[in-house]
Each structure stands twice: as structure tokens, then as C-alpha cells.
Amino acid sequence: MTVSDTPLAVTASAEEDYRRLGLDRGTVRPWEDGARTDNRRGTYEWWYFDAHLQDGSTLVVVFLNKDINSPNKPLEPTIRLNLDLADGRSFEKIVSFPASAWSAATEHADVQIAANRFTGDLHRYRIQARAEEISVDVTLTGEVPPWRPATGYMLFGADRDPTVIPHSFEN
Description:
Number of helices: 1
Mean pLDDT: 88
Strand order of the largest sheet: 6-7-8-9-10
Number of strands: 11
Radius of gyration: 18 Å
Shape: globular
Largest sheet: 5 strands, antiparallel
Low-confidence stretches: 164-171
Distance between the termini: 31 Å
Helix content: under 10%
């Protein structure tokens, strides 16, 4: 394969990728659910939850460290709430906070944006969030084991470097 035949981006899934990234194939560890980036230029991170509720409503809650469309910008913690009620009413709320409102543990899922919190242990999660007049307090209990797509990392360029920022992110 020549350099021109090398894909620009691939999912890290080779045995050497698992070794280099300190991961076990088929086993997700609690630290993998914690913060995985350092908020630097070109990175972003989010914790995402969605559900179909018993009454027919749907709910999506996302905690973001910054806008995924602008990863080169500074930290801008944001809560997104989408609630579609069974009666047809629909709410979409996006609330941003100052960088000082952000904290995220690296050992497990524990993200705080002001008084909003997303915490869990790979089996049980609690999500507490408020965006304007909508507030949610959800507890989830897993019915299946945790999962990640291969290593969860994308590799870029011929060197398969997970730290290279793709050209499309450079502004």
C-alpha cells in the first residue's frame, strides 16, 4: 500500500492500538467513561443520553464541554435538552455556561456544569439537568454490558496518530 492508498482516518482496532492506548478488547473500564480530552484546541467531548419513556415521550440530554462544530474555540460548557411529549408538545433547549462552571472527573463519569450533573459507574447513571423551564432528574440502570466501538479512537494519516488534528478542524 502506498501513502496515497492509506486512509486519512480509521478506527483504532488493531492489537497494537489496544496496547498503545492501554485498553482491553471487550472490557470497558470506569475511567473510559470519564473525561478523555484536556479541552485543548481541536478537541471536544460530550456525554449523551436518550430515552423513549413509558408514556410515549422522548428525551435527549447532552453535556458538552464545547460546541462540536467549533472544537478550536475555548471551553464553553453547554447543556442540550430535547423533550418531545406524548401530547405533541416539543422543547429544544440549549444553554451555555462560563468555563468556570465546568468540571469532569477522569476516573469515571462525573460531569458537572453549574448545578447540572451527569454521573455513573458503567451500570447505573443519574442525570440532573435544567435548561430554562425544563428540568430532568433521571436514573438509568443498565440491562446490557457497557460497549465501545473498537478502542473508541480515530487514527489519522499514514502514522495512525491519535493526536493529529484533522485538516478540516484547523481554522
